[in-house]
C-alpha cells in the first residue's frame, strides 16, 4: 500500500523537476538571444567595428550560457557540481567540432540546388585556418593539463590559454578577415518601450532602431541575469536528473545535454546562412566559437576543478578524454582540408565526418552505461 502511494508521488516529483530543467533551458536560450541582441548594439554604441562586434562580442555572448554553467557549478562547490562543470566545459567544443560541423555539411547537400555554387563551399579559408589552429593548440594544451600533477604548472597552462585567446583576438582584428556581421536587429527592449508608449498615447521614439545607450546597457545586464538564473537552475536540475532518474554519471549528462540546449540552437544560424550562400559567415559562426571554447572556458576547468580526463577504461573521465580526442581529430581534418580550399573548393564530406564521431561517442556512452554498468556513483 505504501509503495503504491509512493509511485505517484515519485512520478509527480519527476514531472516537476523535468519542468524545472526545461525552464532552465528556456532561460538560457532567452538570455542568449536577448544578450546577443544587446551586446551587438552595445558594440555599435561604443564604436566597436561592426565585424568585431558580430564575430567577437556576439560570439562570446552566445557562448555565455554554456560558459556560465561551469562557473555557477564551481561557485556552488561540491564534487557533483564540479562534474557538471567539467562536462559543460568539454561539451561545447565537442558539439561544435562534431554535430555543428555535420549540420554544415548536411545543409550544403540539402540546399545545393538553390545555392550559387551547388555543393561547393566558398569561404574565407585563411580565417577558418586561423580559428581552427588556435582551437587545436588550445584544446591540446587543455588535454595535456589533465595529466599534469603539479598545481603551479597547471596554473601556468591556464594562463597560457588566456594569453592564447588574447593573441587570437589581436590577430583576428589586425587581419581584417573577421566574418561579416548581419545588419543589427532592432533592440528588443526598445521595441517593448515603443509599444508601451504607444498604448498610453505617447509618440514612440525609435527606441528599437536607434536605442539610447541606457536601454542597450539595461537589456544587456538583464539578459546576463537571465543567463545566470538559467545556469544556476540547470546545475541543480541536471544533478537531480543524473542521480534520481537516469542513474548515469553527472559528467555524461552535462557533457551531452548542456551544449545541446545552449550551443546547438544558436548554430542553426549557420544552416540559414548556408542556404543564402554565406559560407564564410556560416563557418565562422562555428570556428570562432571553437577558438573561444577551446581556450578560455577550459582554463576554468584546469584551475578550479579536478579536470577529470582519464585513460582509465570504464570511467566518466575516460569519456571526457574521448570527447576531447574526437573534437581535436574532427577539427584537425577540417584544418588540413581548409589548407587546400583556395585551389580546390571544399565539398561537404569533411564536415559529415563530425556526425560519425558524434554517433560513435553516443554508442560508447551507451556501452558504458548499459554493458559496463557505469552509474551516477561511478561504480559498476
The main β sheet shows up as: none
Radius of gyration: 22 Å
- First-to-last CA distance: 32 Å
Instruction: Please state roughly what percent of the residues sit in beta strands, choosing from under 5%, 5-15%, 15-25%, 25-35%, 35-45% or over 45%.
Output: under 5%
Compute the number of helices.
Answer: 13
SSE topology string: HHHHHHHHHHHHH
Helical percentage: over 70%
The overall pLDDT average reads 81
Q: Would you identify the regions where 5 or more consecutive residues have pLDDT less than 50?
A: 178-182
Q: How many strand units?
A: 0
* Overall form: globular
Based on secondary structure, the structural category is mainly alpha
Can you offer a commentary on this structure?
- The structure is a single chain.
- By secondary structure, the chain is an all-alpha fold.
- Helix 12 packs antiparallel against helix 13.
- The longest helix is centred in the N-terminal third of the chain and has 44 residues.
- It starts with a helix and ends in a 9-residue tail after the last helix.
- The relative contact order is 0.19.
